[in-house]
């Protein structure tokens, strides 16, 4: 089978499986099989695919038809300025989370604590953009920490990663605390896309309660782990801005919401006075 036919057939197969953006996803999978960027598919020679390439394409398309996220199939996701390895043990880093990274880089800090680091996408992006800064990432998942360590090494960033349940066992103070915690309420889980609900780690999606448990824990320990005048930046769900601001304000912070490019509440920034 030639490349052009493989592209057409792959897009048709995913469309028939009900995949939104079928042509885009098919191209990402085919490009990963060939070891190229998706944009090159339009300009490269219309060569025949080898048997091994066809088998890998078939496997990838079958996985996507079963609603496995493309990032897990190809093994990576581009986020902010870098490419990160992702697995079923980590959340798929999303473009909306880049709002948090940009907001953090507008603040003065030389040390950062990332609670629930997952793939390490937030922490590694921040440290790569601010050479000389110190960073610590925590997670309750050892498998996720292994992915984060690998991403830091691959991108050339020095960071520490330790297993921890929020602040438990974490010593020292930081200029900045960041987190993209599990904020989906248990009652909302059934309404999620199967791409997310059935494939991404449940503990990174929901607290099994009202979606606010993590923010209460982060706010409760912030003063004991922040340097004087330090900041907290947390990603939130689009309806949680008022509630999360109230939680942080009750802990003594000045808090405000930052919206994403679509105008939705996306991040809460809190400053704790000295």
From TrEMBL:
EC number: 2.1.1.297
Domain Release factor glutamine methyltransferase N-terminal: 5-75
Superkingdom of source: Bacteria
Broad enzyme group: transferase
Keyword flag NADP: no
InterPro entries: DNA_methylase_N6_adenine_CS, HemK-like, N5-glutamine_MTase, PrmC_N, RF_methyltr_PrmC, SAM-dependent_MTases_sf, Small_mtfrase_dom
Binding site for substrate: 180-183
Residues given in the record as S-adenosyl-L-methionine binding sites: 116-120, 139, 166, 180
Name this polypeptide is given: Release factor glutamine methyltransferase
Protein task: Methylates the class 1 translation termination release factors RF1/PrfA and RF2/PrfB on the glutamine residue of the universally conserved GGQ motif.
Signal peptide bounds: none
Alphabetic keyword roster: Methyltransferase, S-adenosyl-L-methionine, Transferase
Matches recorded under Pfam families: MTS, PrmC_N
GO terms of molecular function: peptide chain release factor N(5)-glutamine methyltransferase activity
Swiss-Prot/TrEMBL GO biological process terms: methylation
Reactions catalysed according to its record: L-glutaminyl-[peptide chain release factor] + S-adenosyl-L-methionine = N(5)-methyl-L-glutaminyl-[peptide chain release factor] + S-adenosyl-L-homocysteine + H(+)
Recorded family membership: Belongs to the protein N5-glutamine methyltransferase family. PrmC subfamily.
Residue span(s) of domain Methyltransferase small: 97-185
ATP-binding is among the record's keywords: no
